[in-house]
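Here is this case:
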Amino acid sequence: MRQLQDSVWQRRGTSWIWDAEALAQVCAVSEVWSLRQFLLAVGHWPEDLPSNNETTLVVAGLDGCLDLLAPADAENWLGAEVKAAILSFQDFYGGEASLIFWLPSGAGRITVNSATDAVGWRCAAPHSGQQLDFGRLIWGEAREYPQEILLREGGKPAGLFHLRIT
């Protein structure tokens, strides 16, 4: 998977971050939206976003919702509701804003197959033996686009970035 050290993820595209330092670079905790707020805003997006000089929306709670659903239900919901909301956000802001999902447990839950760059999500108990095909559900088979976010040379990935989901 390609790596990204540029800060473009802070201004446009969709990212999934799990590093607290990365989160602190784009928002204050009080600016973070719940997943419920995000889904209710579809079709009613604000002109000015709450973070990063009004260019970024950070959303928390996706991981908790995925954990509460059976894997088949999580796949259906992620591929339909969440993806539709991401596409609506992208369309409204014309690619000139950043949508960031805060996944505090993401480092241990997001998996990347180094041979294929396929991205998965490890399910929580009682389904911990299963994995969601996260990449296929959210960005289809466009595997050349997701990039690992690095905050510094040689650092561990802080998240994943995708410029435009189709």
In short: The mean pLDDT is 94. The chain has six helices and ten strands. The chain has one domain: 2-162. Residues 71-93 form the longest helix (23 residues).
